[in-house]
Amino acid sequence: MVYIYDTTLRDGAQTRGVSFSLEDKLRITQALDDLGVHYIEGGWPGSNPKDLAYFETVKGLNLKNSKIVAFSSTKRKGIKIEEDANIAQLVKTKVPAVTVFGKSWDLHVTEALKISLEENLELIYQTIEYLKKYFDEVFFDAEHFFDGYKENPEYAVKTLKAAEEAGADCLILCDTNGGTLWYETEEIFDAVSKKVKAPLGIHAHNDSDMAVVNSLIAVKKGAIQIQGTINGLGERAGNANLCSIIPNLVIKMGYKSIPIENLKKLYSVSRLVSELLNRPHPANLPFVGDNAFAHKAGVHVSAVEKNPRTYEHINPELIGNRRRIMVSELSGRSNIVNKARELGIELDKNSPEVKKILEKIKYLEAQGYHFEGAEASFELLLKETLGMSKKYFELKGFRVFTEKRSEEEEAYAEATVKVEIPEEIAREKGIEDRFEHTAAEGRGPVEALDKALRKALEKFYPSIKEVKLTDYKVRILNEAAGTGASPRVLIESTDGKRKWGTVGVSPNVIEASWIALVDALKYKLMKDDEG
Ligand SMILES: CC(=O)SCCNC(=O)CCNC(=O)[C@H](O)C(C)(C)COP(=O)(O)OP(=O)(O)OC[C@H]1O[C@@H](n2cnc3c(N)ncnc32)[C@H](O)[C@@H]1OP(=O)(O)O
Ligand SMILES: CC(=O)C(=O)O
């Protein structure tokens, strides 16, 4: 049995740029409990009022699987343990388990704590002995254990023995600076397990990109507790990523830990943490990233179609992720067939339509289009080629101008747009005048154009009012051409029910924006028709 100890709410909160609210901490606690994590380190109650409030509030959650753990250092030097504010706050939490970190590297004892090596052993012993009177489980985080062991193995082991003799339930070897390589972890675990009897655990940082492998090797060498964080959050380069450790441990290494059926929740827990931090979810995370099972190359897609094992190390559904197929200039016909199937359209790989769609994609990508971030433009292209979409309107012309009358005055833009609605649609709607000629103002030319186009179309298609632009990005494609370069415009839109991306490319940035805007509105009308 390997116990999973999550420190997202404590070491994860030490990530640069991260600040969890109390509500975030409680939501993450519930999600981790639901996933089946064994221990959740909620914070350091002696550190700040928020962590203190967490330990008060968390008692109200009806947790099914996880034990809440409070964290602190060993007692301060030069005072009695009963006088130590950190230790007093730990005791007040009345949680089932606590973890204290103590110094295992002689450098830290003499340089950071500025006490003798003997005194440090006393701090460790006294703190653990005292806390054992109040808590079922007391864990000892041997800070900098690996660096300490490399410089003074005898002393590093003495710190573990002090904790063991005082009654620690698990001795966690910490790679605090994250510089340890996998074979060193292996050797040090081998040596230490001969010298202490208490169970061992590991807490690894990722400064050498070794945190996951060090954690798994430690398990191979007998560790029964792994400390880590969701998405590898943590001080500097982060902590060991539990989203990689858990599936490797359970699915591949076959250890008893979190039940395998619970792993289906891993992807959503990982996303929840990104959402709460208001950060983009890192797409390239193994297992739980959106790219983890995304296939772009035609050769890969063709093989995955036949048997997913050809390019997937596990079934993505086991951890709640899914397969994604991208369409681009690197696609083959399999990508098109697969993408069409996602849209509910069955195509024959050898049909002329598939060939035509693929050729169009390759041609447009060579012009600068990029369909990966513009799935709505791809869907329109596919359905237009297959004759499955209506022509909703035709442009009869647009004009945009920008004026700035003086240094002081803000620049201003105005656009006029003329569109024509097809006869059959006008008849259906009982509208006689099929032409609409409108003008609108905006702070910039694209805003003016967007407003004028909507104004022109709203009379025929009132649901256009629901569409909002949520993102607008311009990328210059052939930078060397300077002002003659071709811009690519990517637009993201929403109607409150769904979000979609469209793309436009032209040497004229206004026209590139127009193409992407038109696709955005056409897509909305097509989806409304499809119900
Ligand atoms: C490896 C890790 O990540 S451990 C976790 C680190 N996390 C944090 O530091 C976040 C929370 N920390 C805090 O809120 C604050 O640092 C507090 C409340 C704990 C302490 O604040 P302050 O009392 O102002 O002290 P400050 O942070 O400046 O210095 C830390 C003190 O703890 C002492 N200390 C550090 N580790 C230990 C230890 N294991 N045992 C005993 N004392 C320790 C240091 O020697 C220093 O004492 P000094 O003031 O006598 O030099
Ligand atoms: C305890 C801890 O957070 C560390 O050693 O990194």
From TrEMBL:
<dbReference type="InterPro" id="IPR005675">
    <property type="entry name" value="Citramal_synthase"/>
</dbReference>
<dbReference type="GO" id="GO:0009097">
    <property type="term" value="P:isoleucine biosynthetic process"/>
</dbReference>
<feature type="domain" description="Pyruvate carboxyltransferase">
    <location>
        <begin position="2"/>
        <end position="264"/>
    </location>
</feature>
<dbReference type="InterPro" id="IPR013709">
    <property type="entry name" value="2-isopropylmalate_synth_dimer"/>
</dbReference>
<dbReference type="InterPro" id="IPR000891">
    <property type="entry name" value="PYR_CT"/>
</dbReference>
<keyword id="KW-0808">Transferase</keyword>
<dbReference type="Pfam" id="PF00682">
    <property type="entry name" value="HMGL-like"/>
</dbReference>
<dbReference type="InterPro" id="IPR054691">
    <property type="entry name" value="LeuA/HCS_post-cat"/>
</dbReference>
<protein>
    <recommendedName>
        <fullName>Citramalate synthase</fullName>
        <ecNumber>2.3.3.21</ecNumber>
    </recommendedName>
</protein>
<dbReference type="GO" id="GO:0003852">
    <property type="term" value="F:2-isopropylmalate synthase activity"/>
</dbReference>
<comment type="similarity">
    <text>Belongs to the alpha-IPM synthase/homocitrate synthase family.</text>
</comment>
<keyword id="KW-0012">Acyltransferase</keyword>
<dbReference type="Pfam" id="PF22617">
    <property type="entry name" value="HCS_D2"/>
</dbReference>
<dbReference type="Pfam" id="PF08502">
    <property type="entry name" value="LeuA_dimer"/>
</dbReference>
<dbReference type="GO" id="GO:0043714">
    <property type="term" value="F:(R)-citramalate synthase activity"/>
</dbReference>
<comment type="pathway">
    <text>Amino-acid biosynthesis; L-isoleucine biosynthesis; 2-oxobutanoate from pyruvate: step 1/3.</text>
</comment>
<keyword id="KW-0412">Isoleucine biosynthesis</keyword>
<keyword id="KW-0028">Amino-acid biosynthesis</keyword>
<dbReference type="InterPro" id="IPR002034">
    <property type="entry name" value="AIPM/Hcit_synth_CS"/>
</dbReference>
<dbReference type="InterPro" id="IPR013785">
    <property type="entry name" value="Aldolase_TIM"/>
</dbReference>
<dbReference type="InterPro" id="IPR036230">
    <property type="entry name" value="LeuA_allosteric_dom_sf"/>
</dbReference>
<dbReference type="GO" id="GO:0009098">
    <property type="term" value="P:L-leucine biosynthetic process"/>
</dbReference>
<keyword id="KW-0100">Branched-chain amino acid biosynthesis</keyword>
